[in-house]
């Protein structure tokens, strides 16, 4: 046989092996996956990446374990598909558990593949997306499998704030495996088919006697509304993965780049006349802050983060004059927009993310204060509220705050006031900045006058008006330099766009240190 023929035979052999690896465990396993309402790992990757862009790494990897029948089962890929491709033309690294092989369970070879692709993502400075659908550690491989998780956690931490990390939960994720998604920037889940928990329903029942389903314990809705573990929850995988692509389009490749600029066709100087009617001048009347955001941002489009958890504060990514911005806003429709434990944590994490990835921050303020109550105090509102304060004070990206109506007490300071480093502080003519509301202030300051009066209610009303006119009029803070300008609501978009353009070259340094010790 000639050398040419031998080479041709080897190439044919390669194509045969590659076809076997691509096919996976066969049609029945694929049918079983589809019967659960789930796509295969390769189908998911095809949805995530641009057509024809996926380049697989270690496709022919197989485990070396023996015992418990493993030596007879050595499928290619070892249950995880790793590689890179593009999303809207930009490089993205990905790994996807193949539930059809060992239930997607992680063994030594499986973990080593993930370690490699994570190292490549960090070195290349490109986002990493994990498509999770695995049954945890491969029990047959014992502690070697557990050590594999340790390597993933270590790399998640190393990559934190360096490249965007997105976890997409498309199946079960139990035990220590759940800590990898928790270490990443964003967690997506699909209702009914994905669950996350440290201990499953059977263990919970054995230890506490509580009976609960997998979805009731760790389903998408639970983590989206109650625990805050999940940032986004969707009804099907196709929608979920499409939203991952949209999120990636708003993010930079790494912490050394700015987010991509897009041509939106929405003029930066567009007037926002609707804001005059959207926000009532009466500070006690609620309104939907989402409609304010829609008026301000390009084409009314934004991606809300943690939409259903701690709804009294909104966090969103959007574009303003084509440039990506992060928005933090109180939501008067939920708990009057107060800050509580959950809202403080939610906003703090978002501020930290935006700062890490060069995304300017716009803070829309309408806050009556921190939520009072025994549960809040005993739950640690002091240290949790301090997380948001710390995040803002530590942020070096451009920061603009806009006070729409109320800004009372410590919550005014925490919501990126000028005193904690906001680059620009703006306000509408409807703003009220004070230690507390006029009613409460009058009751404290003039309590003796009110008590001694023959007509206490009339005196109280008079003192409330007096306090409001003296210390809470719209220009009080501007006169003292605590607000840079009072702007017409109709000019909000134009003013913010101009301010961001000016701040685009901002440079700020923090004191030399290994890292801060943020409140826990």
Automatic annotation (TrEMBL):
Residues 267-516 form the CoA carboxyltransferase C-terminal domain. It holds the Pfam family Carboxyl_trans. It comes from the Bacteria. Residues 7-263 form the CoA carboxyltransferase N-terminal domain. Transmembrane segments: none annotated. This is Methylmalonyl-CoA decarboxylase subunit alpha. GO terms for molecular function: propionyl-CoA carboxylase activity. It comes from Streptomyces collinus (strain DSM 40733 / Tue 365). PANTHER family: PROPIONYL-COA CARBOXYLASE BETA CHAIN (PTHR43842), PROPIONYL-COA CARBOXYLASE BETA CHAIN, MITOCHONDRIAL (PTHR43842:SF2). GO terms for cellular component: acetyl-CoA carboxylase complex.
């Amino acid at each position: 046989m000639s050398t040419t023929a031998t080479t041709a035979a080897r190439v044919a052999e390669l194509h045969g092996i590659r076809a076997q690896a691509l096919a996976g465990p066969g049609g029945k396993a694929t049918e079983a996956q589809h019967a659960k309402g789930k796509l295969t790992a390769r189908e998911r990757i095809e949805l995530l990446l641009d057509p024809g862009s996926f380049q697989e790494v270690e496709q022919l990897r197989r485990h070396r374990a023996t015992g418990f029948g493993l030596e007879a089962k050595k499928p290619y890929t070892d249950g995880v598909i790793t590689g890179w491709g593009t999303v809207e033309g930009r490089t993205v690294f990905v790994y996807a558990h193949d539930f059809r092989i060992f239930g997607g369970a992680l063994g030594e070879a499986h973990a080593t593949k993930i370690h490699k692709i994570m190292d490549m993502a960090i070195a290349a400075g490109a986002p990493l997306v994990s498509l999770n659908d695995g049954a945890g550690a491969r029990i047959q491989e014992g502690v070697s499998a557990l050590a594999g998780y340790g390597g993933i956690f270590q790399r998640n931490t190393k990559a934190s704030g360096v490249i965007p990390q997105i976890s997409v939960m498309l199946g079960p994720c139990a035990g220590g495996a759940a800590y990898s998604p928790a270490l990443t920037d964003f967690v997506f889940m699909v209702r009914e088919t994905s669950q996350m928990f440290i201990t499953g329903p059977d263990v919970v029942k054995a230890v506490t006697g509580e009976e609960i389903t997998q979805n009731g314990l760790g389903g998408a809705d639970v983590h989206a509304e109650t625990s805050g573990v999940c940032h986004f929850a969707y009804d099907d995988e196709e929608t979920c993965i499409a939203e991952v692509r949209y999120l990636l389009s708003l993010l930079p490749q790494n912490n050394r780049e700015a987010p991509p600029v897009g041509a939106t066709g929405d003029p930066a100087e567009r007037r926002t006349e609707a804001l005059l009617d959207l926000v009532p001048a009466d500070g006690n009347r609620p309104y939907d802050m989402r409609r304010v955001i829609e008026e301000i941002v390009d084409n009314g489009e934004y991606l809300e983060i943690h939409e259903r958890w701690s709804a009294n504060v909104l966090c969103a990514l959007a574009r303003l004059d084509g440039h990506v911005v992060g928005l933090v806003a109180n939501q008067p429709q939920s708990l009057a927009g107060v800050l509580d434990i959950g809202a403080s944590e939610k906003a703090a994490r978002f501020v930290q993310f935006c700062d890490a990835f060069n995304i300017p921050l716009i803070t829309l303020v309408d806050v009556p204060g921190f939520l009072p109550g025994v549960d809040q105090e005993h739950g640690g509102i002091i240290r949790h509220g301090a997380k948001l304060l710390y995040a803002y004070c530590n942020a070096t990206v451009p920061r603009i705050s806009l006070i729409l109506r109320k800004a009372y007490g410590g919550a005014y300071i925490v919501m990126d006031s000028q005193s904690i480093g906001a680059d620009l502080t703006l306000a509408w003519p409807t703003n009220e900045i004070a230690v507390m509301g006029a009613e409460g202030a009058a009751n404290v300051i003039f309590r003796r006058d009110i008590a001694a009066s023959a007509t206490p209610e009339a005196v109280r009303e008079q003192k409330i008006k007096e306090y409001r006119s003296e210390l809470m009029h719209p220009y009080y803070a501007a006169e003292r330099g605590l607000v840079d300008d009072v702007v017409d609501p109709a000019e909000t978009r134009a003013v913010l766009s101009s301010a961001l353009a000016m701040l685009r070259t901002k440079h700020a340094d923090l004191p030399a240190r290994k890292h801060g010790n943020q409140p826990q």
